[in-house]
Amino acid sequence: MRSNKIIDRKINSLYVHIPFCEHICFYCDFVKVKKPQDPQVIEKYLDKIELELESYKNRLDDVQSIYIGGGTPSCLNEEQTTRMCTILSKYTNKENFEYSIELNPESVTIEKLNIYKKFNINRISMGIQTFDNELLKKIGRIHDNSLAIKAYKLIKKAGFKNVSIDLMYNLYDQTKKNIATDLEYLKDLKPDHISWYSLIMKEKSVWGRKNMKVPENDELFDELVNQGLKDLGYIRYEISNYALGKDNKSLHNISYWNNSTFAGVGIGATGFEQIEGKYYLTKNEGNILNYKKEFELLSQEDYFFQIIMMGLRMVEGIDISLEKNKDIIDFYQEKIQEKIKQNLLEIVNNNLRCTERGFNILNEILIDFL
Ligand SMILES: C[S@@+](CC[C@H](N)C(=O)[O-])C[C@H]1O[C@@H](n2cnc3c(N)ncnc32)[C@H](O)[C@@H]1O
Ligand code: SF4
Question: Could you tell which of 74, 100, 166 is best to mutate to test the pocket of ligand 1, judged by most ligand atoms within 8 Å of the CB?
Answer without folding.
Answer: 166
